[in-house]
Each structure stands twice: as C-alpha cells, then as structure tokens.
C-alpha cells in the first residue's frame, strides 16, 4: 500500500483518489441522490483539509472519513432549510442509475431499507468492513451491527426473492 | 458473484469529474476562519451572570434570616487555671443587674481616694499607693475591706497590707508605650542585680537612639536569663545582612547584645496597642471585659487578659488581628505580680521586656567597698568610690514589725 502522510491536509490529491469512492458511495447510500452526495463528498474532504488532524495509521484515517461522512450526510438530509426548500420531486428527478438492470434492482431494494439497516449493509457488503469497524463508524455496539445485518439481509431477500444476499 | 456485483456497483458510485474539479478548486482557496459566534457567547455570559446573581441574592437573603456564626471569624483565646475562682464573680456581676452589679467596674482615682479615706488611710498613704498604678476595682476593694475587718491586727488598714493585697489580686494597666527603663516596678521594687543592670543600660542606649520612633526592622528587646539584652529583628530583613546587628552593637557599645528574629515589628505592635487602647471608649461592651493588655516584646505579641469571653469581643479582635498570632487572649487570668507563679501575664513584663525579678531581687543590695584589693600601706590619693546598687530607692518604707513582710537585716 502506498504510504500517505498521516497529517491531514498534505497530499490531498492522493488522499482523495484513495478514499473518494468510499466516501461518495456511503454518502450516496445515506442520502439517496447524487446532488446531496456531491455536497457531502466536498464537505468531508474540505473538513479533512482544514482539520489539521494527525492520524495514528491508515485505519484511523479511514474510520475518521467514514464517521465524518455519516455526520455530514445526516446534517445535509436533516437541515430544516433543505426540508423546506427542496421539493421531493427534485430528488426523484435525479435517481441513481446503474448500468445493469440487476444493479438497479439491488440499489432500489437497498434504498427501500430503513437507514439503520441500509448503512450496515452497505459498509459490510460494499466496503467489506468488519462488524467491529462498522460498530465504530456508526457508534453502536458490534452486537447491534450483527442484528441489523441479519434483519437487513432478511428484508433484502424478501425484496429480491432470495438473490444476492447470502449469509 | 455477489462480490462482483457489489464491486461493479461501487465503481459506479463515484463523484463526477465536475464535482472533483470543484473540490480541488475549493481546496486551493485560503481557509476561511470560522466567525466567532459573539451572540452565542454573549447570551451564555448573560445566563451565567444571571445565575450567579440570583444565587448571590439567595445566599444573602438566607444569611439575613439564618445567620451562620461559624462564617464570622473570631479570635482564639486560652482559658487559664484560675478561671474557676475568678470568673463566677464576674459572671454574677455581668448578668445580675441587682445590687452590686457595678462591682466589676474600675474605681476612678477620686473613688479610690474617698474609699481609702473612709477606712482611715492618710493622704500621704493614698498618694503613695496611687503612684504605683494598680487598677483597683470595686469588687476587689470590698474584698480587701472585708478581709481586713476580719483580721486580728490592731491596724488592719495599713499601706503594706493593701500593697500585698494589690500585688496578688490586681492588674496593672499597661496601655502605654514602653517607657525608658527606670527599673521601677509595681510595689516600689526595682531591678537590682548587676547583670540585669548591664542589659538595661544597653537597652536604654538603644532607646536613646530610637528616640521613641521605632524602625521597621525593630521587633522589640528583652533581657534573657543571664541579663543580656536580646534585640528582636523582624524576619523580613535579610538574615545575611549583618549591618543592623553591627549598628546596634555600635549604638550600645556592648559586645554582649544578642539578636533573634520575630514576625512583627514593635511599631506594628504599638499601632495595634493604640487601637486596643481606644477600644474601651469606642466599644464599651468590649471595654467591660478587658482587664489588662500590653506588649510582650520577648514573645513578640500583645497579651490581653479578659475577665470573661464573648463573641462580640472575639469578632472585634479577629478584625484587629486577622492572622490570630499578634494578640494572645487569656480569659480568667489573674494577672498578678506574685512572682511565685510562673505565668505569662501582662504584669510580669516590664516595659522594655524586662521581667519582674524574684523576691530576693526586691531586697536592696547594700553598698560595699572592695578595698581588700589594695595595700593599706600604699593607699592611692583617692580611693575608688563606693559602688552603689543598680538603682536607689527613693523612699524606704517605714519598718512596721506587725505588718511588714520583711525584716531589716542586722
């Protein structure tokens, strides 16, 4: 793995290249539309650039970015200004589109889950994080992560008729 | 298979090149400092001030209705052994309000003169007695009169018996600044032994230099057991600086003067004495229980004797002496000139810190001639003068075998 500076702010291009898909994917999963995901993506890396934070290792940096992404996503989706001024129809106009039909099917099923189940499913299957790492990012207990994964999988199996999400 | 699906989806969840370019542009701009939320801080400060103010008002109201005595500083005091025999008398007079309630009041010179004339003392005896300086109270006077009436002597009301009574029972007011050491003591005694006299001479020379104005470094002086003068130097002075000591030695012309350190200067103690002297007039409640007070230069403090203690005077003393080490408050102390009792009573300390000598010192040393050192066949033209006792006695009391406590030596 390429060594990156552990102090936030340095070598920003390399940091963004490495983590942009992770941050953007989580933001997209959390917000459900690309407009908000774009805002979150930019806010997360701006915050990273201005924080001046020093990280112990790459795992620490990764966890910080994921946690900040969750927080920024929550701030964007829960802002009263956004709720009052952005019509629901605008969000529906910019749906996330994937190339393959089964991908859109999976994405639609994932978005239909409650947030509590959606984020653990994304972090576990798409980012391949362990239950311990997911617990740290979401600030919940590992047992709760496992429980949400189980229930989320059950709901997805029902929606997708048993495909894609095995134990 | 599933992993391939998820990887494929993840690769499509990537920001557009326009968003990435916008982020890169934002990163190149200087970091904007977050504005300080002054309104938020002002509101928080106002809330805090409101809470503190409300709490203060609440506490003030609480104290007004439920005063906490323990919060008011009071001065410490010590109770002495004679308390049992002395306090009840004053306690009765203080709370009685009946006949004799003025028995603890001090007698004015006119009162004392009239009372002494009533029992048969002559004007000369009255003047001699009053010159000693005893502070007679009505209670003590009637105690003396009752005691003498029951005695078996032919002349119960003679001056010596009154002096003996006064020595045992009365305080000597010592409110003034230390006067030059004349050697006079209450009762007509004087400092007679030679070592003490040498120290006293050193002390007088020192006082002559001060001329009544004590420097800040001077904490007082006293004679130690061997009669040498000990000069107290305030602790704040540099202990390595010996110029003060050399100056004192130069002033006294003596090489036997010793030095010790103390906390308070004599000027500070004198200032506090002035305030204590004014206290009976400004606060009669305090004055009623203040029996005697004076500076003990050896102990570097003021010693105050109270006939009884109450919170009022202790609060006043705490204000005068916040550190509680400048005034030693004794309650129920029978401050007497009875030299047989070791007690730090005020009357034991002469002005200048000279302690009251023992009984033996009260007897004058007879003049002597040391001619034995000389050859009688080769006498000098002028013989050395006879050495006189340290201080002469102005008036020798008349011998009265029936009442006198001493007899002339044959």
Strand percentage of chain B: 5-15%
Poorly predicted residue ranges of chain B: 83-104, 173-194, 333-372
Major sheet of chain B: 4 strands, mixed
Give the H and E element order of chain B. Answer: HHHEHHHHHHEEHEHHEEHE
The rounded distance between the terminal residues' Cα atoms of chain A is 30 Å
- The appropriate CATH architecture of the largest domain in chain A is Orthogonal Bundle
Order of helices and strands of chain A: HHHHHHHHH
Greatest chain-chain contact: A-B, 32 and 20 residues
Q: Give the integer mean of the pLDDT values of chain A.
A: 84
Report the mean per-residue pLDDT of chain B as an integer. 71
User: How many H/I helical runs of chain A?
Assistant: 9
List keywords for this structure.
heterodimer; A: 167 residues; mainly alpha; Rna Polymerase Sigma Factor, Chain: A; Arc Repressor Mutant, subunit A; 0% strand; B: 410 residues; alpha/beta; 4-stranded mixed β-sheet; 3-stranded mixed β-sheet; 13 helices
